[in-house]
Amino acid sequence: MMSSDEPGATPFHSVQASFSKFQRQYQQTLDRWTPHVLQRWLATFFILALFMLRIVLSQGWYIVCYGLAIYLLNLLLAFLQPKFDPSLEDDLLADEIEEGGDQSVPVLPSQRDDEFRPFVRRLPEWQFWLSATRATLISLFCTVSEVFDVPVYWPILVVYFCVLFALTMRRQIQHMIKYKYIPFDIGRKARYGGSK
After folding, report:
1. How many Cβ atoms sit within 10 Å of the Cβ of residue 12?
2. How many angstroms separate the first and last alpha carbons of the chain?
3. pLDDT tens track for 25-63
4. Cα angle vertex 42, ends 40, 45, to 5°?
5. Inter-CA distances, 48 with 58, 68, 162, Å
6. Could you give phi then psi for residue 145, rounded to 5 degrees?
7. How far apart are CA 23 and CA 25, in angstroms?
8. CA distances from 114 to 28, 45, 89, 109, 180 (A)
């Protein structure tokens, strides 16, 4: 039998131990799911389909759906953008020249096509999946409570989201064309040597 004088006998320590055990199990589960990209995304789309079915059948919680759509659009944009934005690098270089910086020092590489630069995403695929899944689960949980069922005229939200999506994706595609990068490597073959 444990005496009350032991340091581990307080209720706080047992709750803390249970929480750390839960965190370890959660992390182990996530680590097991990491290599299964297709299965992860299929599960997320299934949860998203359940959420949409819940919205359509209940005819409510449109503001929760709109919030989820905006958040997923934000995640998609971060997934499509490079970690080191070339437009920001050009702006910093222009600012340095305007402030009287040394113009005689060449910027490496001297030409943009000289050096292989892999595409590094601002938001990695794993973080994109995890954030999208968590947001969808939280949104699905929000549809249980009537507190989040704010009455709104949903066609305005749909039109606004479609316009926002179109304008944002147009800007992103123009950025990709201007700085000549493709965020996907599907069908791309590795080239070695100087011949094209």
Report:
1. 7
2. 77
3. 999 999 999 899 999 999 999 999 999 999 999 999 999
4. 110
5. 15, 10, 18
6. -95, 140
7. 5
8. 43, 41, 17, 7, 14
Q: How many CB atoms lie within 10 A of CB 131?
A: 17
Q: Which residues pair with 184 in a beta bridge?
A: none
Residues 64 and 160: their CA atoms lie apart, in Å, by: 15
The label of the residue with tokens 């919680």 reads 61
Contact 135, 44 (CB under 8 A): no
Structure confidence by residue, pLDDT tens digits, 67-119: 999 999 999 999 988 887 777 766 666 667 667 665 554 444 445 555 656 67
Contact 84, 120 (CB under 8 A): yes
Maximum alpha-carbon separation in the chain: 79
DSSP string, 20-48: HHHHHHHHHHHHHHTT-HHHHHHHHHHHH
> Residue 174: which of 81, 40, 101, 105 has the closest Cα?
81
CB atoms closer than 10 angstroms to residue 17? 11
- What letter represents residue 6's amino acid? E
Contact 46, 135 (CB under 8 A): no
| Amino acid in the structure at residue 18 | S
pTM, entire model: 0.74
Angle at 71 between CA 159 and CA 56, to 5 degrees: 55
- Provide the 3-class DSSP secondary structure of residue 181: coil
